[in-house]
Amino acid sequence: MPVRVYGSPAEALSAIREDLGDCTRCKLHGLGRRQIVFGVGNPDADLMFVGEAPGADEDIQGEPFVGRAGQLLTKIIEAIGLRREDVYIANVIKCRPPSNRNPEPDEVEQCERFLFRQIDTIGPQVIVALGKFAAQSLLRTADPITRLRGREYKYRDAILMPTYHPAYLLRTPSAKREVWEDMKRVRAILKERA
Ligand code: URA
């Protein structure tokens, strides 16, 4: 097969989206998803956020983190002096699981390769894994998020920081303090690696 060469990360991301197509690789395509939610943001971002899977709002709008949790994520991004358009936001799973159930291992296995290609194309300095599912999937561990957060991990060419999911923060506002500590550290690492 000829090797395709892409001029820019934006073009390479479009090619990944094209490869994903109208995906039927796992059963989620037949379980009520309206559309694939690929990812959004700056293809050259230094900072990338990875969540679990689209929810109802994201399934309707075709963009990750646009519901209540997403609005809180936007505020978290702004709290470190960035705009949503400056970063890249994606999920491990690109289709909404029915009734927002957890993604299943076969779904992750089929889908995560597209996230890995997104990460390798964008080449962020820092990846923030939002919540237990994203952190455990990326780090290939079953450790609880309480143990994973507050630490920095080498991940591909980036530093990976697990933190609490914004949906958890909506239920547990007292945990915002820890996320703020994590985000201050993210801001410092971005500065160090600029
Ligand atoms: N929760 C996620 O993990 N991802 C989204 O896109 C929305 C909610």
Highlighted features:
alpha/beta, 43% helix, six-stranded mixed beta sheet, Uracil-DNA Glycosylase, subunit E, globular, 194 residues, 8 helices, binds uracil, 6 strands
Structural summary, described in words:
This protein has helices at 9-20, 56-61, 68-79, 105-122, 131-139, 145-148, 166-171, 176-192; strands spanning 40-41, 47-51, 88-91, 126-130, 153-155, 158-163. It has 194 residues and is α/β, with parallel strands linked by helices. It has one domain (9-193): Uracil-DNA glycosylase-like domain (Uracil-DNA Glycosylase, subunit E, 3-Layer(aba) Sandwich), CATH 3.40.470.10. Strands 1-3-2-4-6-5 form a six-stranded mixed beta sheet, sandwiched between helices. Helix 1 packs antiparallel against helix 4. The longest helix has 18 residues, at 105-122. The protein is globular and about 40 Å long. It starts with 8 loop residues before the first helix and ends with a helix. The mean pLDDT is 96. The structure holds uracil (URA). Uracil binds next to helix 3.
